[in-house]
Each structure stands twice: as C-alpha cells, then as structure tokens.
Amino acid sequence: MGPALLTAAIIIAVWIIRTAVRELRRPGSASAEWAFLRDPRALGTGAAAACPLGVLGWLQAGAEGLVWALLAAALVTYAVSKLRSE
Questions:
Q1: So where does this one cross the membrane (predicted)?
Q2: How many helices (H) and strands (E) are present in the chain, helices listed first?
Q3: What is the pLDDT of residues 6-16, one digit of tens each?
Q4: 45 to each of 14, 29, 79, 81, how far by Cα in Å?
Q5: What is the pTM of this model?
C-alpha cells in the first residue's frame, strides 16, 4: 500500500473516530454528522465532483488518484450539506 493510500485511510479513520467521540459526548450527534449521506442535492454535487476528479486522478496517479478523488468528493458532499443546513 502506497503512502498516498495510507494517508487517505488515516484521514477517513480520523473522520470516523471524531464522529464516535462526539457521539459519546452528545448522543445522537452521529446521525447529524453523517446526514449529508441523505441529502440528494449534496450527493448530486459530490457525484458531479467525483466524475472529473476521478478521471483526472486515474490519469495522473492510477488507483491512488482515484482514492483521493473519492475522498475529495465526500468532503464536497459534506460541505454542501452543511452549507444547506445553516
């Protein structure tokens, strides 16, 4: 496993651990944290970001670029959902 994949895995693990710690402090907060997965507009925006990023990532770095593109698309989805909820 290359360093880029390991870094992406660490970022995802930190995101999940942060959610778990918040859930322990405030029960029910995890569903609010991951509500972006139920927001159709945010998911559409994330999918729109994933397509060009995935192609560019694949062309530039192969599978590692694709992993980073999917992580970036997930963060775009999260950001769009948070902006809409405010």
A1: 6-21, 42-59, 65-81
A2: 4, 0
A3: 888 899 999 99
A4: 23, 24, 10, 10
A5: 0.83
